[in-house]
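Please, is this right?
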Amino acid sequence: MKKAAHKVFHHKAGNKSIGKHRNHHRVTCNVCGLENFQVDRYKCLICVNYNVCAQCFEKRLQSEQHSTGHTMVHFKVPDELFGRKIKSKDEITIKTMEHLYGKEQHEDIACDSCIIQSISGLRFKCDTCPNFNLCQMCAIKNTTNEKHKPDHPLILVSHEIIQKLNKKDIELGDPLGQGAFGTVYKAKWSSKTGRREVACKVLHIPAGIDSLKLEKSFLRELSAYAEVDGAYILKLFGYSTFQNENSSTSYYLITEYMTKGSLTNLIYNQQQHERVSLRQKLCIACNIATGMRKIHDHSLIHRDLRPDNILVTDNYLTKIGDMGLARVLDEYLDHTQIGCKRYMPPEFYDTGMYDQKLDIFTFGLSISELFTETQHHFKENRIQIKKSSPIFSDLIDRCLEDDPRYRPTAMEIEATLNLYLNEFDSKNSTSSNYSTLSLDEQNKLFCQFYDEYHSEAVQIIAKQYPPVKRLSMYRLSAEKSHDDKSKTKCKCCIQ
């Protein structure tokens, strides 16, 4: 039943198969059957002509032919890989990848199996384990260890994680918005396969700052976050940097263009005919939760997860943006410039020390705002919810616990939200009535389902994530965090 629900609602929530557009991969997903999809494409290097759309990839769906642990190639742009045009389907094999990229040198990146200090040739990274890399030989053998399992996907990566672009290939258009770190423009980018509509975030760093040091720090931090990609993380295509006449430094960050803009825009600027149902809002919350869980799986913290930094496509696929910017730029900009204070948890102000549970707090505020279309009150470094959400109010309350130890993990949040979504879809996928209902009727139906299913769902989640397990998972995530104490303090708290 749930498989059928996935088939019915998957097309509505994530992809539009609209002809052979430049932004569409001209293949069929071998898992869900979607043709000419727009989300990222994963091509298996072992199975013949086996392609997976990003949403099926994130769900780790496989078949008798294909195992999730196979080596794969990730296409962010149709027919283009690592800045090279890949036109024929026949070119995407392990042999052709070796021919094209077999001479690459991955300096200071060791194979975590055979302990080669610097991988030469093809390099594969695990999409599940943080900072786990294999050379070609070990990847083909599907080498495993205590943490890396045989079903973990292995993705081919380039020695140049973030592509440096020519400024001449980027044409700025109208401004889309201004944030804490700069202005975002709609832009055109001349890639290897043609001109593409993109977004360009322009960052200006004042004169007097060591631009070379900043660029190294900037790339190091963004590279760490760039390796955490997927269906619900905003795609970063590349960057450009240049000196201005006044000796200041400017950066262009080229990302995918999200047609509906930020989640803030969706919440507050929607027209009457564009109002979003509670079920669709739950889909959006699921997307954010999965993106956040993936960030946390790699021992990273987003630091600025809020509606302004969550972007939405025209079919409501939702992605987390501004990866890594909060950390790297906080070293160079006055912390008061960062526009996230009203979303920060108590520990941010009380001790200046924080971990991944900061993201859980800001996530709770974000989905509260999403479900109620009302922003919280902020005064004297404390928040107050103005309007209680009709659904998931208890989950939101747990996310907003003052003591971070009692906030849920991203994994538990993802499991909770998907549990409700899958159950609702399984009960309504066989009915043709849902799509014909008015928005108010759809919301009434969903609230009725939520109230009837809530007690059962709470028990299911409590068995999977009992309080003792929650605290042990919190301690484990705190221990493996890659941040040292100075870097988990905000700038104004470091003495």
Q: What stands out?
A: DSSP finds 14 helices and 20 strands in the chain. The chain has three domains: 28-157, 167-256, 261-486. The radius of gyration is 22 Å. The longest strand covers residues 194-205.
